[in-house]
Amino acid sequence: MFEGNSALGFCMVLAIVLVTTKLFGLLFRKIGLPQVLGYIIAGIIIGPAIFGDFCGFSLIGFEGSEYLCFLCLPKESNALLIFAKIGVLFLMFSTGLETNIKELKSAGLASTLIACAGVAVPMVLGILIALPFSEIGLGVTNIYNCVFIGAILTATSVAITVSVLKELGKINTKLGTTIVSAAIIDDVIGIVVLSIVTGVANAGSSEGLTGFAWFKAQWWGTIIMIVAFFIVAIGLGFGISKLFRWLEKKWPNTHRLPVFSIVVCFIYAWAAEEIFGVADITGAFLAGIILSTAHRASEYTDKKIEVNTYTMFAPVFFANIGISSISFAEGMSGWLFLFAVCAVLLGLIGKIVGCGALAKCFKYSWRESATAGVGMMARGEVALIVTQKAIEAGLPREFMLMTVLLILVSSILTPILLKVLYGAKKGTPPADDGGTSVEEKAA
């Protein structure tokens, strides 16, 4: 009915996206589910996935479609993709800013190994379950798609875990600190794994390439470039951290700090993908970690960036997933749904078994080990980001169904199971079982 490729037309697109994501976000928060899941459902509802495919009409659609839409965007809407890209970079940058380096260091060997198991076991299970499903673009002939499935299952939602532990008053216990630290490390490892997988998946296409482009197209060149990126980025990070500490002393709590921080975020994201062949979200995340060492400046910057991120850019990113990536009429099949259910089950079991087994090795009780596994089970925005990057690297868009189902099921089960596990031992905490807080043990 109306074109959305003009400036004012796109403003109407943003208006519809923002109001629907906000309403669904509030609704999902009311029923105890993550708001980001509400954002995706909002995108599905206003986009072509339901009303366009089944009713012949949608609020937001794309030019050339057979159905009617209130606002029609160009087939590849650059404006919507740009807003979504800024949203995902801000999300990962903010996650990096909130990462506590000292907490990660103090978490010790237990959290690190639990996180490694939380990545390795679901990834292996994801690859194995994908191998028999050659009918839907997986199998041995599409091995990189199988690896992408495994990479998607590695993600953990720090936000969901932290919110539940805070609600239960267990965030500062020994076990709670271990779970949160492991969840943070899990996401770091998962993002690095994604960078390696996407880099290697895109390697080998060296026909007609020469020089540096040919070097980056080789699998071994990809690995060298990934290592080089982290060396260069961290090396420059020491100077950037000192610069921001100086800026914070000279101009404390001024808007120039967030502006310069965003500049660093965008440069790191661009350099990561365009020069080194690493996922841009890895660059944004690492920029946030580097700036997190300038503590006061990072806290002020995070507050300012979060306003823009969660007011506009993040809702657009999550809604765009529903608008452009999910269609229930095209590409969906019984095989795909069966695979999604199997992958979700193995993704949940993989976290519980992998993380729980490592926790048991560090002399946690069986119940505490199960609690650690369940605490690492939740999936959220990182799983969506990883899925989106995998789709850009060649994974069929229909597999977003698996991620949405994984987030929905894990988001419902994690709070329930954590409350049951903690409630089961309420009032009878052993002297040194993780029920004692860090502050009490220090005293």
List the uncertain runs: 424-443
- Shape, principal axes of CA atoms: globular
Largest sheet at a glance?
3 strands, parallel
Distance between the termini: 68 Å
Spatial arrangement of strands, main beta sheet: 1-3-2
**Mean pLDDT across every amino acid position:** 78
Would you tell me the structural class of the helices and strands? mainly alpha
DSSP summary: helix tally: 18
How much of the sequence is in beta strands?
A: under 5%
What level of helicity do the residues show? over 70%
Order of helices and strands: EHHHEEHHHHHHHHHHHHHHH
Radius of gyration: 22 Å
- How many DSSP-defined strands? 3
Which key phrases capture this entry?
single chain, 443 residues, mainly alpha
